[in-house]
């Protein structure tokens, strides 16, 4: 069970007609709820005017039936679900963000993290920009508006902005006449395109298309800018494609994405089962049953069972009314929630040698509690299998892994980890196998948090970035996008 999180999910829609478009965005956000559980927002364009509703909370908490009914019709919308950390106004940092400038109103939503956020923020502040959030999404928005003053079109301003910003970003930008989708040249975070009721939709994952009955077309290419005009015409700018080695976050396949999603042409479900099969080949053990930690460990457990020939069984039951453990930013609450979130099936594990498969081990506390649940239920042996490699290094591209010192595998040796977790054996997927989880792995994966091989330089040492400096010293809160 994990104690990490990914920041957000995006959805955009552009139709050639007016309708209660908020409902389509609402159902899509519901499908993307796993990507962010502490804030949600929808910006709607009606007759060229953009309105916004956003707040802290789950999608159904932010968009109650009266709120949805009260939102105007529109022909386009962008929507966002967000995860935040402790310490700042979650409502203020909810997205989309609305920007008013000389060229008109603009709404923007973002998934990812910039590695040069602090440098750009300081540069913009010196030129008079006043920031109202702690999100690097606002840095992107102000950079776009800066270039908009000297650009013929909004998409040209977005292209110039992509020359300035570094790191991970999938973007949706909506103006009074256009909806623009853009993805960073490395392709760290997912973004796909579909067709719906004669219009175009975008989403972080294809599962959102399934939720509204949209047809998947293709993935937005790394470095690509797609502009949907109000008359329905589509223009594409590929001037930033093929500029960088593709570095898609492999943890999207291991944990973040929903198993029914197709990302960059590959099935998330199949990738997770393949991870389990690789584990069975790399780390065979003698056991009576293979169980997975719900939900993201189940597919890997199935893969391990099929490859090893050890029977698969349901050994842990998840309380369906409790969200992922990272729904609570407070560490104590997150740890204690395990006891009400998971229950062992005593009849399945008592007296058995158990292979326990989970998607990763980050800080170890939750994993230790799960092993204790199985021990208390009478498990004779517990062999822990992580379908991710060892987390050893910080991530700067949208995953909340902030320092090596907080990582279980960095702090302890294999034997120490085994003793702390109270397991009979402990195994991690190899980095080499992680790079082969999909059929088209030639796209290139980012495995920096496992290998320290960063595809683009991390923030400069000593810079005013979110990882190396206490943010309160910069006049910023502790919350990050």
Task: Please provide a written account of the structure.
With about 475 residues, the chain is α+β, with helices and mostly antiparallel strands. About 30% of the residues lie in helices and about 25% in strands.
In brief, what are we looking at here?
With 481 residues, this protein is of the alpha+beta class. It is built from 19 helices and 23 strands. The radius of gyration is 22 Å and the shape is globular.
Task: Draw up the topology in text.
Blueprint: E1 8-19, H1 21-31, E2 39-46, E3 49-56, H2 59-62, H3 65-70, E4 74-82, H4 90-93, E5 97-101, E6 104-111, H5 117-126, H6 136-148, H7 154-164, E7 170-174, E8 178-183, E9 192-196, E10 199-203, H8 207-212, E11 215-219, E12 225-229, E13 234-237, E14 248-249, H9 251-256, E15 262-263, E16 266-267, H10 268-282, E17 289-292, H11 298-308, E18 316-318, H12 331-336, H13 338-341, E19 342-344, H14 346-349, E20 353-358, H15 365-376, E21 381-386, H16 408-411, H17 414-421, E22 425-428, H18 431-434, E23 445-446, H19 448-451
Parallel strand pairs: 14-23, 17-20, 20-21, 21-22
Antiparallel strand pairs: 1-4, 1-10, 2-3, 2-4, 5-6, 6-7, 7-8, 8-12, 9-10, 9-11, 12-13, 15-16, 18-19
Helix pairs in contact: 5-6, 6-7, 10-11
